[in-house]
Amino acid sequence: MRRLGILAGIFIVLLGGGAITSNLLTSDLAMQQTTNPSGSVLTATPDQAAAFIVIVGFIIVNVIGAGLTLALVFWLLNRQVKVVQQESSES
Fold first, then answer.
1. Are 33 and 39 spatial neighbours (Cβ–Cβ below 8 Å)?
2. pTM metric for this prediction
């Protein structure tokens, strides 16, 4: 039941992100772009928007990679602890 809740939450976040990206909800939530570098501070040039997306993507990939690496290390350590406990109980 807990997995179903987690999957439902992820699905809702994905739907919300898609709605914001496609401007279904409102255009105020989307980043406005301009080709004028001295335009409003609330708009971004296409180069600035692309750089922002690349940097955010890089950070997200690194955080996920670090989390997966830590999960693997702790899983391997836990596996070895169980092996040692089993050997000590057999002796």
1. no
2. 0.48
